[in-house]
Structures are given as structure tokens and as C-alpha cells.
Amino acid sequence: MALAAAVGDDAGLVRDLRRAFLESADRQIDMLSRALDDSSWHLALWRLKGLCGSFGVVHMIALIEEAQGCAPGDAKTLARIRAMLSVLGED
Asked: How many domains does the chain have?
């Protein structure tokens, strides 16, 4: 994430924003996992994509765009999105 470029050298603020992003993204991924129809699947993807756009997480945006063509609750897609979030949480 490119938070430092947006907020400067305030390590505490970067840490807080990073945590907020990860928690919000996790909630949206949970919504994806519970999506039973195209409408709820696409709404959760749209929200997650907007969140990622706000934080400049372009690699995840590309994955979300791929997911738009998948069936709601697609296990492989959810696993890929969760894995990417996990990697982002490790940085």
C-alpha cells in the first residue's frame, strides 16, 4: 500500500490506516463469502474494489475485476482474494 506517500512520515497514522484497510477488506470478503446471488456478489466486489482504490492497492483491484466474471461464492476466487489480503497484512 502506498500510504506513506499520502500521509507522510507519520508511522502511527500509516499503521492505523493500514489496520483500518485490512479490517474493512476482511469484512467485504466475508460479505463475498456469504453472497448467494449475483447482486450481492457484485455489490461486495464493488465495495472491496472502491476500498482498494482508496488505498492504492492496484494488484487486488485486478483480482477483483477478474472475480466479477465468477459465480457468487466461487471458492477458488475467494481463496485467491483472501490470500492476497493475507500477503498485504504481512507487509
From this structure: 1
